[in-house]
Fold each of these.
Amino acid sequence: MNSMDAELLPLSGLAQLMYCHRRAALIHVEGIFEENRFTLEGHFLHERVDEASSRSEEGYRIARAMPLVSGRLGVFGVADVVEFRPQPYPVEYKRGRRRHREADQVQLCAQAMALEEMFNIEIPEGALFYDKSKRRQVVKFDEKLRAITMQAAQEFHRLVREHCTPPPVNDERCEQCSLRDQCLPTVVDKQGSVHRYVQSLYGAAS
């Protein structure tokens, strides 16, 4: 995949996709988005961090709100912070407490892969900074995470290209999702259950 083969999509969509394929499609295929407390907290955090600037600190340069593009992944976006040590070291800011969340790690890895293309270097690690914990979580960009990130990018492009919106999952992820009222996971899930039940009846009768 490269920018000549596919339209560039928002890098942040990879995190949406890793959280929930349906959520990613509702936002990037159907153009639906609603705010809730969690998304607003995230926006306020990024507004504090993402004022475009470049300054020196602790012996190295720090760039904020740095534009990124990856032809390989077919995405574009903005890195919250890139520390030049002198090698670029991406830092993504997240709301909440420090935790292991694959969606966050994939988003950070995609930023690193974009930086690798832009600077023609290899970046072994970066960090996630969780606002409530005030602590960093170091993320190693190993082959497994890179493969997951590439697969996510391919799936993201497929959803957009095919205008595909998957059915809802209706699990614990839905409780904090800002698109719950638009997605209607319980209603659609019940409809799907009825459809499967009718199919089972006709299948049993045949």
Amino acid sequence: MERNLVHLSKFVSLVLRHQPEIAKLTLGQGGWVRIDDLVAGAKKAGVDLGPEVLREIVEHEERKRFTISDDGLRIKANYGHSLPVDLGLEPTEPPEVLFHGTARHLVEAIRAEGIARKGRHYVHLSSDEVTALAVGRRHGEPVVLRIRARAMHEDGFEFRLSESGIWLTRSVPPHYIEFAASTSDDAEPPRG
């Protein structure tokens, strides 16, 4: 994604996930807002954002953070809200193992306390190590932790699968985490 689209994507993420008031918006059921209202609110906030740019952001955003409604009139963030938003995601049985990317300097705290939501509604997990590695890189030297998701599910923990393929759960206690997982040296994305 080109640099200006990245900047605009961050603004959209801020508004749809954390601070809709910046664009004078209130999130509707499921986190939806009218695209026209978002465009108008962005303009009031000094951000030049049109419907075509929003569609380009949705189409090119690698982590699939946003969805445009089938009728093309509304947009929402798929996950990562710090606001109370019911995304309407039903509990879903997870695969045997999921992955969590983090920074090496956080591992000892995770080993002691597990993985907490830290101001969000859910812990985010991925179904592949490459995605988790990319997430970990955003926080420092990356480490990928293996999460025994099926065992958690069998013990009563609920999982939800976002529209973008991110698995969501409320917390991950330390005894479900395998710490001898991949780091930046052995989980590089395939080349070719």
